[in-house]
Amino acid sequence: MALTSTFSSNLSLPCLKSQPALSHTAHLSSKALPFIHRKKLHAIVNQALTRVEIPFLGTHHNYHQNLWEDDFLQPIAPKHPYEGPSYGERCGRLIREIKHMFSATAGGENNVSQLLSLVDNIERLGIDRHFQEEIKEALDLVYRNWGECQRDLNTTALGFRTLRLHRYSVSPGMFGTFRTANGQFLCSTAESEEEKIRSILNLYRASYIAFPGEKILDEAKEFSTTYLREALQKTGINSNLLEEISFNLENGRFSNLPRLEAKKYIEMYEENSSWTRMEGNEKLLSFAKMDFKMIQSMHQQELETFSRWWRDSGLSQLKFASRRHVEYFYLACAIFEDEKDSVLRSSVAKLSAIAAYFVDTYHTYGTVDQLKYFTNAIKKWDPTIAEPLPKYMKVMYTALYETLNEVNEGSQKIEGQDTLSTSRDIWQYFVDVMMQEVEQRALGNIPTLVEYLRNGKIVSMTYQAILQPLLTIDGSFLENILQKLDYSSRVYDILFLCLTLEGDIKSFKGEVDQREEISSMSCYMRDNPGTTKEDAINYVNNLLDDKLKELNSELLKSNKVSTWSKDYSYDIIRGFLHFHQERDNFTISSKDIKNHVTQIIFEPITM
Q1: Could you write out the three-class secondary structure of 402-468?
Q2: Per residue in 545-577, pLDDT tens?
Q3: Which residues neighbour 232 within 8 Å (Cβ) at sequence distance 6 or greater?
Q4: Rounded Cα–Cα distance for residues 303 and 101 (Å)
Q5: Helix, strand or coil, per DSSP, at residue 344
Q6: Which CATH number goes with the domain that contains 203?
Q7: Structural domain count, the chain
C-alpha cells in the first residue's frame, strides 16, 4: 500500500521545559542537597556487593560477553615516550613546513584545485586542528573565486563538499552543468579512467551534504553509488583507489569517525607510492603518523584511568547488562582526540557507560515496583534513601551520584559555576520518561509513532552523552541554551530523532526475537493497520533520510546556536550512528567494533 508522508514534515517535539514531570524539581538548589564522602559511598557499595552474588540473566538479551579482560591493558598498551624534546622539535619543524605549503600553493597556478586537495588531505589525515588559520585563509580564497572554479566535476565536487562543510554558502546547482538528460554525470573526456573514478568518488562524497529539497544531490548519490560499485568490479584499477572507494561506500558522512578515518588514510596513503611522490605529501604523512602516535599514547594512559574508575565504581560486577565501557571510551577518543579534550572524553565515556546500565535496567531487568522506587530515589538525590534498593541499583545510583558531583566540581573549576541542579534535571527527566515507558509496557500499550519518537530522544541515552558534558566545557552555551532545560534548538530534536530511527532500523529483527514490541516500525504498523514489516522499514528509512538532510541544514547553516556546540553535537551523532552502522553494536559488540577499538587505541603505527 502507499505509505503516508505527512509525519516527517509535521513532527514537532516539544522542548523539555514543557514537560510537567520536572515541575517540582527543576529549580532545586544544589546547595541544599546532601553530599556523602566517596569513601563512605564505596563502603556502602562494597558491602552491598559482598552480601549476595549478583546474577547474570542471560535470557533477557543476547548480549555478547565483555570483550576485554581486566588486565588487557598491561600486555597491549605499553607506554611510549613521545613527549621528548627531539620528537617535539621534529613535529614543530613539520608543522612549519606544511604551513609554508599553503602560502606556496596559494600563489601558484591552478591554486584553487591544489588548495582544495591540500585541505582535503590534511583533514582526511586528522591533522587539520594544527592548521585552522591556514585552512580558513585557503577556503576564503577558493570561495572568492568560486564562480571561476567550476571547470571540471572533480574540483566542483570537492570544492562544494569542503566549502559547505565549513559553512560557506554554496548551491548544488552548479552540478547541473555536468548532468545529462538521462541522469548521468559526465567527467572530462581528457581524464584517464582512474581520474574519472576519483571525480565520481568526490561527487559521491559531496552528495552526503544535501539539504532538504536538493534533488540534484539525490540524483548524484544514486548515480555515483551505482558507478562506484561497478568500478569495484573492474580490472586494472589501482588497488589503493579501490580500497578508498570501499571505505567511502561503507562509511557515510554521519558514521565516519575522524580518528578511524585518519588511521585508514594513513595506511592507504603510505601504500600509495604515486601519492607519496607528489610534492609535500611525504611531509603530510610523516607528521600525521607522528601526531597519531602521540595522541594514541595519551589515550592509552587515559583508558587505564577510565578502566580503574569502572572497576572501582562496582559497575564491572553487574553482569546483567551489556558491558561496553571500553567501546564507549573508544567512541570518545575516536571523536575528540586532542589533549585539551581529556575532560570531555572522560565525561562522555563515563556517562554513556552509566546510561547504558540505566537503559538495560528499565527495559529488561528491573520490576515495576523496584523501578518506581529507584526513579523516586534519583529525584530525591539522597543516597540514604537508596538503601532499600536491590544491590545492583545501589551500585548504579552511587556511580551516577559520584560522577555528577565530579562533573560539577570540574565545571566549577573550569567555568566557575554550579551545574549540579541542571545535571540532576537531565537525569530526572531521563528516568521519568523511561518509567512512563515501563508502565505503558506493563499495560500492554503501544504508543503512536509521534509519542514513541518524542520519548525515544530521551531514552536513547545519547541525551545524557550529548547534554551532560557540555556543562563542564562551555559556560555561555549552558547559560543560553540549557537553562531550565529549554533545549529549543531544532538541531537537537532532529539529532535525537535520527539516533532513535537508526537504532530501531538496525535492531528491529533482534527486538522481535526478544519480544520487544515497541519500536518505530511497530508503532508505525499500529498507526497504519494492514501494513507489513517491509512497509514499516521502508517508511522509517525514508523518514531517517529526510531527517538527516534536515540535520545537515541545521548544523551547517547559520542560526542562534553556537558553531562550537553544533560541531560537538555533529561529532557525537557520528559516534553513535557508527555503532549502528551494520548492526546494533551497542548490544552486539563483537568483531567489527573490537577491530576498530584495536586500530584506534592499541595498534601501533610504524614510522
Answers
A1: HHHHHHHHHHHHHCCCCCHHHHHHHHHHHHHHHHHHHHHHHCCCCCCHHHHHHHHHHHCCHHHHHHH
A2: 999 999 899 889 877 667 777 777 777 777 777
A3: 242, 245, 246
A4: 36
A5: helix
A6: 1.50.10.130
A7: 1
